[in-house]
Amino acid sequence: LQVNNNGVVSFGTGVPEFTPEPFPLPGHRPFVAPYWADVDTRLGGDVFYRQSRDPKLLARLSQDLALAVTSSDPTPKPTWAFVATWHRVSYFGAASKKVNTFQAVLATDGFTSFVMLNYQDLQWTTGISNQGDPHSGLGGLPAQAGFNSGDDVHYYNIPGSRSPAVLDIIRKSNVGVPGRWIFRVDEFTATEEPPSAPSTSPAPRKTT
Q: Which one, 47, 66, 166, 205, has least CB within 10 Å?
């Protein structure tokens, strides 16, 4: 796994491009993009990541991921997790104090795998290299969010990607929790709405 500064977690090779493209991408390029954009941590913010088998974290993830399955499915019980957080990151060419905070969580039990994307604060969409305004961080070619399996078949573009509406993903969800998107990726299950019969679980919290 590689955590790229530009808001992407990739498998095998890095993703140096700061200009987002819609999925699917040509060639074998599997990666998860919580917010693929022209992030510039030199102007503010940090990127943190870790892998964990901590029982408390995994138990909390089990509750969070339960929202992505129906009541007839077993509750996810991950045994491993990888968490990458972009905390209060700025954009290239920024002439403002606008920052974004978002997160990607990968979780698996060795058979069933999920990707969870969390959005805490989104204030900008575009750096100046992508024709964004340096003062507003808006305009030009906005960020892309979703995942790309690398097989040209299984992928998902979160609605609003590469448009000004990408800022709205913090208020929307496919599991009924604003700012949270969960995908089962071993079967490449990607939905825009919560399951018709979601499992009962406590209200999820941001994974940190």
A: 205
